[in-house]
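Work package 3, deliverable 3.1, input record:
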Amino acid sequence: MEGRSLTEYVVLGSLIAAPRHGYEIKQFLGSTLESTWRVSTSQLYALLKRLKQERLLQSNLETQETRPSKRVLTLTDDGKAIFTDWMHRPTMHVRDFRMEFMTKLFFFFHYSMPGAVALVESQIGFIKTRMEEIRSQSEKSTDPFKTLVFEYKIQMMAGIHAWLSKNALFFARGLNID
Amino acid sequence: MEGRSLTEYVVLGSLIAAPRHGYEIKQFLGSTLESTWRVSTSQLYALLKRLKQERLLQSNLETQETRPSKRVLTLTDDGKAIFTDWMHRPTMHVRDFRMEFMTKLFFFFHYSMPGAVALVESQIGFIKTRMEEIRSQSEKSTDPFKTLVFEYKIQMMAGIHAWLSKNALFFARGLNID
DNA sequence: AGAATCATGTAAGGGGTTACATGATTCG
DNA sequence: CGAATCATGTAACCCCTTACATGATTCT
């Protein structure tokens, strides 16, 4: 999760297809990623402020007659680049896998973005390599507790591998855009 | 992870067999749980202060001649009860499983405490039930993305189940204390 | 002589949570 | 007529991280 948190990528991702204001981002995330993911209102506005300071997005105040005025956020080129790079990079730490990878697949799915199959494939490659590393560490281990921990990691990676090859690959292919 | 964080239980667990001072706790954790787990010095001292305020432990200043004086921490009855209860309760949220369950097994192992087999068995029961719940939700789901998420959860729970039945149960039986 | 060990902290700051504030409009 | 929706925030607090502070002793 190089430097930026998942929360930041999710907010950037909410703006990749079209500008939105804070309340709209909240609604978008609440209606789509809601099962996987949540932000509180206060955190969202704080985050938007920070991302604006970092020039990943810019804002425009729009006054409305019958409604409170709203601050419409647009991604800058930097913001777009950061999000797009992230979307095509596989997850490097197994502990982040669930949230990070699922979120990427969500955006591929929701925006019909190309590259999902390639991401799934490179993620499969990464997990295979990592699994072999842990397997060899486990074989060398003499401490029974550490071995137990290694075996757990191997089991989880085997599960991820199975899911990637079966479900995720099928899902990504079904998007029919690669 | 009812209320208290894993960090708190780990610190309480470091004191269950004998009183220790802060530096000693740090060394103990660094030499045993180090692969699974870390605390920074500053966080440890802050946490000890908080646990003392909550009366889960008490401290005694011991002056030494050739060394800086040390604050020796002892668990109170409340502290002991909170740790012991936690040790025998299965983990309720899959997201906490890895850290929480592994830590419990570590303490069972390190202190040769009885009850490991019972914990593994009740954890197996819990995960089976939870897996069936998710499976039925998954079958009802029509949204392909949500289905994908459900299938991931099922895959992970199946992995946990396999590891519990194979590795963890064997490990717990090997402790030869139940 | 310099590094590591023993021993306990403070200070600043980051990121997240919960609670609170405001105020018009539109739906049931 | 009250509840939900639209819209944006502030304030306080919690936990954790990183950096800094101190100072004697013992190992290399």
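Chain A has two domains: 1-87, 93-178.
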